[in-house]
Structure formats: structure tokens, C-alpha cells
Amino acid sequence: xxxxxxxxxxxxxxxxxxxxxxxxxxxxxxxxxxxxxxxxxxxxxxxxxxxxxxxxxxxxxxxxxxxxxxxxxxxxxxxxxxxxxxxxxxxxxxxxxxxxxxxxxxxxxxxxxxxxxxxxxxxxxxxxxxxxxxxxxxxxxxxxxxxxxxxxxxxxxxxxxxxxxxxxxxxxxxxxxxxxxxxxxxxxxxxxxxxxxxxxxxxxxxxxxxxxxxxxxxxxxxxxxxxxxxxxxxxxxxxxxxxxxxxxxxxxxxxxxxxxxxxxxxxxxxxxxxxxxxxxxxxxxxxxxxxxxxxxxxxxxxxxxxxxxxxxxxxxxxxxxxxxxxxxxxxxxxxxxxxxxxxxxxxxxxxxxxxxxxxxxxxxxxxxxxxxxxxxxxxxxxxxxxxxxxxxxxxxxxxxxxxxxxxxxxxxxxxxxxxxxxxxxxxxxxxxxxxxxxxxxxxxxxxxxxxxxxxxxxxxxxxxxxxxxxxxxxxxxxxxxxxxxxxxxxxxxxxxxxxxxxxxxxxxxxxxxxxxxxxxxxxxxxxxxxxxxxxxxxxxxxxxxxxxxxxxxxxxxxxxx
Length: 561
Hints:
The strands form five sheets. The chain has a four-stranded parallel β-sheet, sandwiched between helices. Strands 5-6-7-8 form a four-stranded antiparallel β-sheet, covered by helices on one side. The chain contains 17 helices and 16 strands. 43% of the residues lie in helices and 13% in strands. By secondary structure, it is an alpha/beta fold.
């Protein structure tokens, strides 16, 4: 009898606790995630957010839900206008270009396309209609072509963030706007300024304030009541707090059942900042590392915890990814000549109890850990590792067994590989490329980081072989060490020397990474494994983080605050 799946729990930022997930409509889920302001290339903070929500999307689909996933683009904003003016470019054209760049980055990271990707400029009618309803319900007022939300007329303001208006001091963050009845009123509509894009409205030409766009578009695609709304923790206040206020002011039945927020990213334990020089775009990272290595690194920390980006950690993630795909490739190579015979004569073969336990544990742990508020690190750090170890042990045994025992091992390996692929797919780590193609991509990235070519490495291997032949062992060791320092590990397999990417020796951290100097892989060993036992990312999860609006998913202007 199949084991019943554990109930899916999500941490709800509104109630400050984990809750069992129950959709409004059985079998269907509506999700709205705040998207980027498209004025520049996206950074690794964006990658952190959208990889996390992609795992949520994938897991909901894995559970059998019909999911409507909405992720917007803010394509009109002060930052877009300012950047366009700096470059002498049309704001709409600039925004469109960076929307496409963002989608390219998301595709590289294997984030599934949302059901809808609305842009603000395509939804002006919905935005203006919602503003009109807010005014009609007594929570908005017009001043000189601007429209502001009246927080005094919405008693529940602060419910999500826990902030009270009396706790805030006017003028502390921005200059007091004398047009506002309360310093914490925020813009719903902003009067047009010379040289800026504008749309006609009942209050005069202008454009939307920052917060209203998400309220209007989420209601348009998901109705006023839907299941999940997410974004970075920096959006809790003011963005999501203001969303709740304006959505409920427009329609009292508005409700989001689960508010979820991801933690921030630091770089080398410091706040990301362009001025400090530790600000990394996704494109800068994936220029030197495989996009799936970045995804693996991000999944190595629970989505609500802060994650510290460093070269040493992305190196470990890259090596772990190579181990995964090398093991899968070795498994595929070993099974290739045996699959047909297994299908023909292997019906009577029985999977060993140990193999069945490995399969069941991987499936059970995967569902249990993801059901526990999407705890991806626990999957990468436990049963998935055990499954790969089981594959390697089985491959070592395969050639030593009689035919019937071989067929039993083959059957087990086929089932374990299938289960591993299901897990990797749900985590977004299963590439559409072949195993070998991914391995070659990883090797090319390693060569690029090392400043070497394949020919350079081949020449070094030949030079080392000659040195060893001439009993110049110190020279051979020197060649090997020089390459290892550049992230290239030489592996002696019988009479042949091959290479693979490794964590550069000078970045070695003894508490996490073992020595790189193991000289020989035994002939019967079918996979080249990383020298550390656990192919996992172990970022420092407990570092406190402060991220400025410069790194936020959205970029509010001072008039919005």
C-alpha cells in the first residue's frame, strides 16, 4: 500500500507560523509573485527569489494542482525613465529589452515560464478602475493631478508588517510631502512630469504609483481572493502592506491566504552594493559558472534564510553538479548494453531490499522535506547523496556478479535513476541537455575560469606523463598542483590520465573541502567523484542581512513612500 503523502506546509508571513496549505478551490492554486523593475540586468538577489518560487511552482504541479502562476513586469518607473534619459533611449524600448534579458536569465536557470507575465503598461484600465473604486470607498483622494491612499481611513494598515503608524516618525526617511493628509499616505497615481510617459485619467495625465499595479493585476488574473502571494522580505513593508490596504479598500472581500517571502543575498558576508564592488548580476556569474551550479547553490539554503554568495561556495556547488551528472552519465553508460537484456530476461529479477529501501527513502524524504515549507537543503544533503552513493557502489559490483545478479542490479539502477530524475526535475536541476552535454558545459566553464584551453590541459597531461616516465616525480607533482590551483584536477585511471573540474586548491576550506591530492581512481570505479564526501552546498545560513532598495525586486520612488 502506497504511503500517504505528508501534508504540505508553508510559512505564512501574515500569521508568522507554518500552516497546512489548503487552496481556495480544491485542485487549483492561484499564485502571484512580484516581478522585476526592468531597467537593468537582473542580479543574484533576483535569482534567489525566482528560483525559490520556481520550486514552489514545480512542487505544486508535482502534487497535481492546476496552477495559475502570475509574475509581473514593472515596465514604467522612475528608474526606467532615468536610465532611458541617461542613454538617450525610449523608456518603453529600454524596459522591453531588459524584460527579454530577464527572461533569458530565467531560462538559463531553468525557471519555468509563469502562466501569465503581465506588464504594467498593458493594464492601465484595470489600474485606473481600481483607483476609482478606492476613491469611491473613501480611502483615496486627489491633489493636483495626483491620487493618494489615505491610511487614516484604513484601520487595518500594518497588519502584515506589524508596524504601527505612530511608531514611524514623519520625515525620518524622506521629506514630508505637504500634499498628503498623512505623511504615510502613498501614491496611487502620479501626475505627469515634462518629458515622462503618461496616460490620461480622470485625475489628469500621469502614471501609476508603485504599489497599485500588483493589486490591479493580481485581481485581474486571479480575482480578489487567491491562494499565495510572494516576494522578497524587503517587500513586506511598504509594498505588500500597501497592496493589502489598497486591494481591501477597493474590494472588502480581497484576501490572500498565504504570504510567503524569501530571504536576502549577501556577497562575501557583506551587503551587496555597486559602490563596494560586490554586486553581481546573474549574467556575470553564469559567464564563468554553469547556470545550474548557481541554482544548486541557491537551493542549498532554505528559501527564508539569508544566503551568502562567495566564490568558494559557488565552486563547491559547481563541483557537486559535476558529480551528479558524472554519476548519471556513468550509470547510463553501464546500463546501455544491458537494458535490452533486462527488458527481455529480467522480468524475474528482483530488486534487492537495500535497493528498494534506497528508492523508497529517496521518494519519502523528497516529499517530506519539500512538504515542510520547501526545505530543499535537506534533500540535497541527505537521501539524494545516499542514492548517488548507492549507484556508485552498484556500478562497482556490476561486473563482478553472475548474470542473474547483474539483472537484479540493472533493474535497481534503472529504478533509482528514474527516481533521482524525478527529484532533480522537481528541483529544476534536471537539464534538457544530455548528461554528457552538461558535463562538457561544466568543463568549458572550468577552462574559462582557469584561463586555459583543452589543448593547454592536454599538453600539461603529456608533459606530466613524460616527467613521470623519466622519474621526475617532483615535476609531475608540480604540474598537477599548478592545474589543481586553477580548478583542474588530473585523475589517473589505469594507464590513462583524464581531467575534471575541481574546487581550486587555494580556495580550500578544510572544514568543508578535503584535500585534492588523491592520485588514483581505481580501474573498477566507474565514476570520478569529487574528493569531498558530500556533494552539497553548505552556505552560512545565519548571517543577518540588510539589503537596500537598490537590490530589491521593485524600486520605489520617494514620492511613493
